[in-house]
Amino acid sequence: MGNSRNSSGFATTRKFTTADSWPDSLLSPANKAALAREAARRRRAPARVEVRIADYRSTVVRVVRRGGLCRVSVHSRLAAAPSGVFAAAVRCVWDRLDRQAPDPADVRALAAFLRDHRMAAPPPPPAGSADGRHVDLAAACRSVNARFFDGQAPVVGVAWTPRRSFRRLADCHPEAGIIRVSRLLDSPQVPRYYIEYLIYHELLHLVVPPVTRGGRRCFHHPAFRRLERQFPQYREAREFQERMLPSLARAAR
Fold it and tell me: Count of domains in the chain?
């Protein structure tokens, strides 16, 4: 990867650039100063610290050392955070790189910011089709949404998974409104009410927000479980899951 020099004399690359060259709309002067202070405290020259800012899917902040060079990857939302939070995040990661325990105050500041901001970008639309050999997921989802949510659950897409997974029968990405159902269940042995129960469960995640307990987000809290049990064939669906699915999974192998 080729390097060049900007007007400040700092090295840049195609993907990474020094903090001072980012426009203030992406990295505020206060956060540029915080990054420079941390680099100085770690005895690293600013020219040896390069920064990448992007809407990452999972990265919030990461520091990677390559010899004397430090590359800092920062999610765009964290880059725009208050300087105290930004500095705390950088210190947390750098402390771990230096095999030191992060300051508890820094950990609390970063955790509070993460609770209030969903940092990950929404996943892409589901690969695959809602059409199965035995079940049309799109039709089933429309029916469940209309019957139980007046058609207002904000689902964007539904699809069978590429593989016949047994460990995860269905999942939901609330940020993107996407539901996936394991292709294992596209079988004449699986009753319609069980597919509809799974879709109902995942649609609940789109309308019932999680709660925070002990610093962790809880999705299946008591209020969620009460609504889940309102599905008319809830008991039958749970019994089918415990009684029949293991044999179905064995037969599919």
Answer: 2
First to last CA, the chain: 46
The reply to whether 121 falls in a domain is no
How large is the greatest C-alpha to C-alpha distance in the chain, in angstroms?
69
The CA dihedral of 93, 98, 101, 103, to the nearest 10 degrees, is: -60
Between 83-97 and 104-116, two packed helices, what is the crossing angle to 10 degrees?
A: 120
> Is 126 among the domain residues?
no
Q: Residue 181 is inside which H or E element, if any?
A: strand 178-181
Three-class DSSP category at 18? coil
pLDDT value of residue 13: 33
pLDDT of residue 232: 96
Ranges of the chain whose pLDDT falls below 70: 1-16, 20, 44-47, 55-59, 99, 115-128, 175-176, 214-215, 249, 251-253
Nearest of 142, 160, 139 to residue 152 by alpha carbon: 142
**Residue positions counted in the chain:** 253
